[in-house]
Amino acid sequence: MVNCLVDPCSDYVCFDPPNMTCRPNYCNGCKRDWYNSNGVKTVCLKEGLIYIQD
Fold first, then answer.
1. Cβ(21)–Cβ(38) under 8 Å?
2. What per-residue string of b and e applies to 6-43 under the rule 16 or more CB within 10 Å gives b?
3. How many structural domains are present in the chain?
4. Which residues constitute the domain of residue 20?
5. What's the pLDDT tens digit per position in 18-50?
6. What is the spatial distance between Cα 14 and Cα 19, in angstroms, rounded to a whole number?
7. For residues 34 and 43, is the Cβ–Cβ distance under 8 A?
8. For residues 15 and 46, is the Cβ–Cβ distance under 8 A?
9. 3 in a structural domain
């Protein structure tokens, strides 16, 4: 397990396919895994940062 300074899912969204849920994966690094609405791990083909203004 790795100690990360930030959540690997913080400010990320999956655009393709949409409506995926990001879950941090701390095994061998600070990574993120994407899951569909059924809770099945799925490949995100296009992800990106989103900016939320305070």
1. no
2. eebbeeebbeeeeebebeeeeeeeeebbbeeeeeeebe
3. 1
4. 12-49
5. 999 999 999 989 999 999 999 999 999 999 998
6. 7
7. yes
8. yes
9. no
